[in-house]
Design brief:
24% of the residues lie in helices and 31% in strands. The protein has twelve helices and 35 strands. The two termini are 29 Å apart. The protein has a nine-stranded mixed beta barrel, surrounded by four helices. It is globular, with a radius of gyration of 31 Å. The relative contact order is 0.12. It is of the alpha+beta class. It binds alpha-L-arabinofuranose. Alpha-L-arabinofuranose (AHR) binds next to loops.
Length: 698
C-alpha cells in the first residue's frame, strides 16, 4: 500500500474512533445528576479536552510516514576511505594554524623583510639590525639578520600570527641559527602580554664560533595564559652576531614532535577518522603563476632549506587582504604523509598539471616543457612507495620513514579546465600509467558542477576512461537539497566521482563563521545521504575548506574554526564526523512510497550496514519545520536487536552556530529507541539530522 493511502486509511480509522469516543463522553456526562453550573463546567472541560486530543492525535496520524528498508540486499559497497578531509593552507590553516610555529617571518623572507618584527631601543642609535641578502649562495633561504650590538640593550619583538597563544605552565621551545666570529651577545627570551608584563622568560648564550651556521635551542615555561602575547629577544652584552630561523614552538605539539603540529587541531581531525586527506589544496597547488605553484620537492628536508613563497590567498580577495600570508612549508609533503599515517587516512596529494590558476595569470607550461611537471608526479610516487634503494625512496628513509607510505592515488590539476587541461592530463596519465598501471588518477572537472566547462571535461574524461572525476560545488542550501538525487542516474560503470570540495554557501551578506550555521550543515547532510546511496559511483568526498583562523580568514564557511589557543567544530564538522564514523560497508535500499528519499516532505535518507560492527545504520534528515513521525519497516531476514540508538543533531533555529563559547551548541545527542515486531517508530524533530543504529545478529 502506498504511503498516502496508508495514512488516509489510518486517518479514517482514527476519525471513527475519535467520533465514537466523543459521543461516549457526552452520554456519560448526560447521565450524571449534576446541577446546571457544575454541569456546564464539566461540559466545557470535556470539550477542551476532546479538542486537544483531536489536534494532537490528528497531527500525529496525518504525519506518519512509512519508510521501508530492504535489509538483505546490498545495492552498493562503501569504500573504506569514502569520507575524507580537504586540507589547504587557506585562512591561516597551515602557517599560523596547524603548523605550530609561533614566530611570523622567522627567516625574514617576506616581501617586507621585517614584517612582523619591531625593534625597541631605549636610545635612538643603539646598535644596528640589518637584513642581509645572500641569494647568490643560498637561493632557498637568502636572507638573515645581522646584529651589531654596542652599549645599551635593545629588544627585537615578534608579534606572532595575530598574536601568540601562550598557556600557563607550558614549556616553550626556542631555537635559532646563528653565526659569530667570537662570543658576543646573550639572548634573553621573553614572552610578554599586551601590557608588556613578562609571562615567560628564558635565555640562550650562543656558545660556538666560526664561519658556519650553528643551531642552538633553549626552553622555558610560561607563567600565565594569554591568547595574544608577543615574543621578544633582549640582546645583552656587546658584539656582532648573525641570526636566522628564529623559532618558537609550544611544548605540547601533536605526538610531542619537535617543531610539529598543533595537537588540538590534529585531534579534531583524528576524531573524524577520515578515510583520506587531500592536500595541499586547492588553488595553492596552481599558484597565481607557475613560479608560485606548489612544488613538493621544495617542501621536504631541513626547514631552513624550504624556500618560502607568498601564499596566493595573500592577495586573492581584495576585501580580505592578508599581506602577511606566506607559505613557509614547515608543514611539507613528508609531514602531510606522516599526518595521514598518524590518523589512519589515505594520502591524496594533488599536483600541478603545468597550469597556473585560470582566474589569475592562467600561465601554462608548453607541452614540450611539461616533462619536469610529469617527473614530479612520478618521483612523488617513488618518494611515497619506492624501495629505499631508489633515489626518492632513500630520501624518504633519510627523513626517518623507511617503510613505504602506500600511496594509491593522486590528483592531476586542481580546478583546471578547457582543452589545455585535457592535453596535459592525457600526457600525465600516459606516463604514470605506463610505470604504475594500478595507480589511480583524479582528474578535474573545473570549478563548477554544471555548464560548458564541466560538460566538456565530463564527456571527454569519461570517454578516455578516467579513474576519477573531481566535482566541486559551493552552492546555496537550496541547490544541495535539489541535488540529493544528482547521482541516482549517473552511469554505474567506468569513471568514478570524487566530490573533492563542497560546502553550502549562504547568503553573501552573512560573514565569517556565521555562515557555518545549522541550515548549511543540515543541507549538506541531506545531500550526503545521496552520495552515500550512490557509493558505487561517488567513491570519495570531502567538505572544503577545513580550517579557518577567526582573525585571519579569507574564505568562509569552513569546517573548523580556531584562535591562537582554542578550536571548535562547526555543525558541519559534526555532520561530516557522523558520516565518516558511521560509514558502514554496504548500502541498502531505503524508500518512501518505493522512491528514493530525496526531499519528500523535507526528508532525505540513506541506509547502510556495517558488516564488521554488525549494525544497521540509518541516516535521515528532516528539513521541515514540523516534527515528522516515521515508521521504519524492515524487509528481510536480518535479525535486528530490539534496542537501537539515535544520535540526533537538531536545532529549531536554522541560524544556530557553534562558537568558542558554546562549541557544542549543535552536536549529537544520544537517545535509545525500541523496535517492536520489525518496526521502529521515531518522531524526527524539526530541522534534525539523525543517525539511527540498530545492532543485528547475523
Ligand atoms: O576551498 C577553497 C578554494 O575553493 C580552493 O582553493 C579551490 O580549489 C576552490 O575554488
Amino acid at each position: 500500500m502506498r504511503n498516502e493511502e496508508k495514512n488516509k486509511c489510518s486517518n479514517d480509522v482514527y476519525y471513527f474512533k475519535y467520533f465514537t469516543f466523543t459521543i461516549r463522553i457526552f452520554q456519560i456526562l448526560n447521565r450524571m445528576k449534576l446541577n446546571y453550573p457544575v454541569k456546564s463546567v464539566f461540559y466545557a472541560s470535556a470539550i477542551c479536552f476532546l479538542i486537544g486530543i483531536g489536534y494532537t492525535s490528528e497531527a500525529q496520524a496525518q504525519a506518519t510516514k512509512v519508510i521501508k528498508i530492504k535489509t538483505d540486499h546490498t545495492i552498493a559497497k562503501v569504500q573504506p576511505n569514502m569520507w575524507g578531509v580537504f586540507f589547504e593552507d587557506i585562512n591561516f590553516g597551515a602557517d599560523g594554524g596547524i603548523y605550530a610555529e609561533l614566530i611570523k617571518n622567522r627567516s625574514f623572507e617576506f616581501a617586507k623583510p621585517l614584517m612582523g618584527w619591531t625593534i625597541q631601543r631605549k636610545k635612538a642609535q643603539e646598535g644596528e639590525i640589518l637584513v642581509v641578502n645572500r641569494k647568490e649562495v643560498n637561493t632557498a633561504n637568502p636572507r638573515y639578520l645581522q646584529v651589531k650590538k654596542q652599549t645599551d640593550d635593545f629588544e627585537f619583538i615578534n608579534e606572532g600570527f595575530k598574536g601568540i597563544g601562550v598557556k600557563k605552565g607550558l614549556r616553550y621551545d626556542f631555537s635559532v641559527m646563528y653565526r659569530q666570529s667570537k662570543p658576543s651577545v646573550k639572548l634573553v627570551l621573553l614572552l610578554k602580554d599586551a601590557n608588556n608584563k613578562i609571562i615567560g622568560q628564558g635565555s640562550l648564550t650562543p656558545d660556538q664560533t666560526g664561519n658556519d651556521w650553528k643551531k642552538q635551542s633553549a626552553s622555558f615555561t610560561a607563567t600565565e595564559t594569554d591568547p595574544k602575547a608577543k615574543f621578544s629577544i633582549l640582546f645583552q652584552g656587546n658584539g656582532n652576531i648573525d641570526l636566522d630561523m628564529i623559532s618558537l614552538f609550544p611544548g605540547d605539539t601533536w605526538k610531542n614532535r619537535p617543531q610539529g603540529l598543533r595537537a588540538d587541531m590534529v585531534q579534531l581531525l583524528a576524531d573524524m577518522k577520515p578515510g583520506f586527506i587531500r592536500f595541499p589544496g586547492g588553488c595553492i597547488v596552481e599558484g597565481t603563476d607557475l613560479a608560485n605553484r606548489y612544488q613538493w620537492k621544495k617542501t621536504i628536508g631541513p626547514i631552513e632549506n624550504r624556500q618560502l613563497i607568498m601564499n596566493r590567498w595573500n592577495t586573492e580577495f581584495a576585501h580580505r587582504p592578508a599581506p602577511d600570508y606566506y607559505q613557509s612549508f614547515g608543514l611539507g609533503f613528508f609531514e602531510y604523509f606522516q599526518l595521514a599515517e598518524d590518523i589512519g587516512s589515505d594520502a591524496l596529494p594533488i599536483l600541478n598539471c603545468g597550469m597556473a590558476c585560470q582566474f589569475n595569470t592562467a600561465e601554462v607550461a608548453a607541452l614540450d616543457e611539461l616533462d619536469p611537471y610529469v617527473q614530479d608526479a612520478l618521483d612523488l610516487i617513488e618518494f611515497a612507495n619506492g624501495d629505499v634503494t631508489t633515489k626518492w625512496g632513500k630520501m624518504r628513509a633519510d627523513l626517518g620513514h623507511s617503510k613505504p607510505f602506500n600511496l594509491k592515488m593522486m590528483g592531476i590539476g586542481n580546478e583546471n579546465w578547457g582543452p589545455q587541461y585535457l592535453e596535459r592530463v592525457a600526457i600525465f596519465t600516459k606516463a604514470i600509467k605506463a610505470k604504475y598501471p594500478d595507480f589511480k588518477l583524479i582528474n578535474s572537472s573545473g570549478t563548477d558542477p554544471e555548464g560548458d566547462r564541466f560538460n566538456l571535461l565530463n564527456k571527454t574524461l569519461r570517454n578516455s576512461n578516467a579513474d576519477f572525476i573531481d566535482e566541486h560545488y559551493y552552492r546555496p542550501a537550496d541547490w544541495f537539497l535539489k541535488n540529493a538525487g544528482r547521482y541516482d542516474n549517473y552511469p554505474r560503470n567506468g569513471t568514478k566521482i570524487f566530490v573533492g570540495e563542497y560546502a553550502v554557501h549562504a547568503d553573501k551578506s552573512v560573514i565569517g563563521s556565521n555562515r557555518n550555521n545549522w541550515q548549511s550543515a543540515l543541507a549538506s547532510a541531506s545531500l550526503m545521504t545521496g552520495l552515500e546511496r550512490n557509493a558505487d559511483v561517488v567513491q570519495m568526498a570531502s567538505y572544503a575548506p577545513l580550517f579557518a583562523h577567526i582573525d585571519a580568514w579569507q574564505w568562509a564557511p569552513d569546517m573548523i574554526w580556531v584562535d591562537n589557543l582554542k578550536s571548535y567544530g562547526t555543525p558541519d564538522y559534526y555532520v561530516q564526523k557522523q558520516f565518516s564514523t558511521n560509514k558502514g560497508t554496504d548500502v541498502l535500499s531505503i524508500t518512501l512510497d518505493e522512491k528514493n528519499i530525496i526531499g519528500q516532505d523535507g526528508l532525505y535518507a540513506s541506509a547502510v550496514t556495517d558488516q564488521t560492527k554488525k549494525e544497521l545504520i540509518i541516516k535521515i534528515a528532516n528539513n521541515s519545520d514540523q516534527a515528522q513521525n516515521v515508521d521504519f519497516e524492515f524487509d528481510g531476514k536480518m535479525k535486528l536487536k530490539s534496542k537501537a540508538t539515535n544520535e540526533e543533531l537538531a536545532s529549531s533555529n536554522l541560524n544556530q552556530l557553534n562558537s568558542f563559547e558554546n562549541p557544542e551548541a549543535v552536536s549529537p545527542q544520544k537517545t535509545t529507541l525500541n523496535l517492536k515486531s520489525k518496526k521502529l517508530n521515531i518522531a524526527l524533530k524539526p530541522y534534525s539530522f539523525n543517525v539511527i543504529k540498530i545492532p543485528f545478529n547475523q
